[in-house]
Design brief:
Blueprint lengths: L3 H8 L6 H14 L6 E3 H10 L6 H11 L6 E3 H14 L2 H12 L6 E2 L1 H10 L6 H11 L7 E2 H10 L4
Antiparallel strand pairs: 1-2, 3-4
Helix pairs in contact: 2-3, 2-5, 6-9
GO molecular function, one term: calcium ion binding
GO cellular component, one term: myosin II complex
Keywords: Calcium, Metal-binding, Repeat
Length: 163
């Protein structure tokens, strides 16, 4: 196959954190439901989405072509780890954070309100009281308007290990 470009890019050593590696492993295991140590095109797409990468069909097909060296229609964990390591390393954190902000701000008010936060907590299955949610907002709500704006949200995310 065409090893030129793909091969060169793959050899570039990229570092990710232990937590990120663990997340990648968990996503792989979750979608490798038959425990073969292999995932197919659909599982790859869903696993990447689960890790926060909204990939287009063409992109996933391209990755399958690049990594599925035996034409089996599957790739193994090492390949998946490689793909995700590259993706995470190339990710523009601010870009990603603002995408996340828009998911919270589902009513497009340009800020995350208590209502937004409550909905997200519920969707994530987090059992948080309104007091706890308010405390989260208060902690980062620099201009004290009771909501978290983009700038405040960036500050929160930069303090977490996710980005």
């Amino acid at each position: 196959g065409n090893t030129g470009l793909g091969g060169a890019r793959r050899r570039q050593k990229v570092e990710i954190s232990e937590e990120q590696r663990q997340e990648i492993k968990e996503a792989f295991d979750l979608f490798d439901s038959d425990r073969t140590g292999q995932i197919d095109y659909h599982e790859l797409k869903v696993a990447m989405r689960a890790l926060g990468f909204d990939v287009k069909k063409a992109e996933v097909l391209e990755l399958m072509r690049e990594y599925d060296r035996h034409g089996s229609g599957h790739i193994g964990y090492e390949d998946f780890l490689d793909i995700m390591t590259q993706r995470i390393a190339q990710r523009d954190p601010v870009d990603e954070i603002l995408k996340a902000f828009k998911l919270f701000d589902d009513d497009q008010q340009g800020a995350i309100s208590l209502k937004n936060l409550r909905r997200v907590a519920r969707e994530l299955g987090e059992k948080l009281s309104d007091d706890e949610l308010k405390a989260m907002i208060d902690e980062f709500d620099k201009d004290q308007d009771g909501k978290i704006n983009e700038e405040e949200f960036l500050a929160i995310m930069k303090q977490t290990s996710l980005y």
